[in-house]
Amino acid sequence: MTQATPATPPDRRVRWGLDDAAVGAVGAILLVLAADWALGHGYLTDPRVVEVLSYLVVWVPLLGSILGACYLRGSRSLARDFGLRFRPIDLLWGLTIGLLTRVVASLAEIAGYGRLGTGGVTLDGPAHDAWWIALSLLAPVLIAPLIEELYFRGLVLRAVAAATDARRPVALAVAAVVSALVFALLHVIDARSGTAILVVGAGTFVFGLAAASVTAITGRLGGAMIAHIVFNGLVVVPALLG
User: How remote is the C-alpha of 157 from its chain's centroid?
Assistant: First the structure.
């Protein structure tokens, strides 16, 4: 058993697994639905509060699941438990995967909407001040890739692979698909139309599958995180620049 193997926990002290991963996903889904209900009933009206909550309702349960698994039931090392490591080659992996999957997502947008853009990035109103622009840039381009990759390609991928009763290549393939499906689900849970579900779901599933594949191959999250930064940045940065 080696630390670079994403199919199994890094050592015998680790006791986290599918239950820890499920807590994060279920918690995020419930909080997203609760926030949507509050927004629909007029309890949330401040655009800034809505924007911050749109991140926190997902990040808080995912981060809680990550930290609980690592520091309460794991080795207390994000590198050993979830592969939070970087090497120079990860930059090449990340740039390639981020660019290619963004192209695929853009093609899905054109096919579904007849134009580029999912409507996920809106920088009108309060986004014009410096503080809000900084939040709009840091949150999706830097913070989201860190938290989401630790959860989806760290905790979920490894937990599913370790729980799959099959040879390692098969277990990793199953885990890659499952982690990509959960990743896509959490991105479409509050979609407003069937078209949005298909378009956003397709783009995020393809990205999730590619990120999971490079994580399975390398045993590290470095490539997936850089890919996530590129994937999100290619949407957010142009919007910020107008």
Answer: 12
